[in-house]
Amino acid sequence: MNLRLLFLAFALMGSIITATAQGLTGRAFYKSSSSFKISMDSSKMAPEVMADLQKQLKKQMEREYVLSFSQTESNWKQVESLGAGPATASSGGASIVINTGNQDRLLYKNVAEQNYIKEEDLMGKGFLVKDSLRNYDWELTGESKTIGDYTCQKAIYSRIVDSKVFSMGKDEMEASKDTVNVTAWFTMQIPVSHGPDDFWGLPGLILELQNNGMTYIAERIVLNPNEKVEIEIPKKGEMISSEDYKTLSEEKMQEMMKRYSGKPGNGNEVVIKIGN
Length: 276
Known about the structure:
- By secondary structure, this protein is of the alpha+beta class.
- It is built from 3 helices and 15 strands.
- The strands form 2 sheets. A 12-stranded mixed sheet has the order 9-10-11-12-13-1-2-3-6-7-8-14, sandwiched between helices. Strands 4-5-15 form a 3-stranded mixed sheet, covered by helices on one side.
- The N and C termini lie far apart (60 Å).
- Keywords: Signal.
């Protein structure tokens, strides 16, 4: 009789946990920071000028995001703020503008159906990139730490990707291979498989993530708020697959390279656009 009662208690506890997870909604507020290095010809730019530019940009490239989620769906979007525009820096007669280009873009993920829709902008035209979610082959390390009120576990992921670099004054894009290294800290105290940007697939919410120089850290989490958490599906833009969007992006880059071929500019201004 005691064993039956114990089994029944565990069964009821499991049902309560499952029901709670199924009805779980919330918002997680993240701050991002970037680690990067400016590298230029030292004969054209003094090291102290490069250091000053880098210091200015690092602070300006901090961003705030909100992840709104239910058990199966989520939205990821940058929080609107006065400092959310392009990062700019000037020193020693040089100026740099870094445009992340995602201030108003919405990312929708559905982990149950394993697909996503993401707003993108290419040369002033809006697109809706729709495709299957990337499957991250996470490796659990067994390490743990506390973030705020939550106990987190460490997971890592790496892969080699093909990339192309656009340089002013050159006729062709340079192909290279890069290694992507990702570290995620997730908590099973919030049993949803969501995370910053397009990352997902762990048995708990990702509260901290490092991705090749970019770091996201959750600073505030609101679970089951009184105000209903609305999960929006993007609708503005031409629907396109991720592969077709990548091909179109490369075509536009080639057009730009041809337009500026042999025209490296006046040497005093560098404009960089960072995208996927």
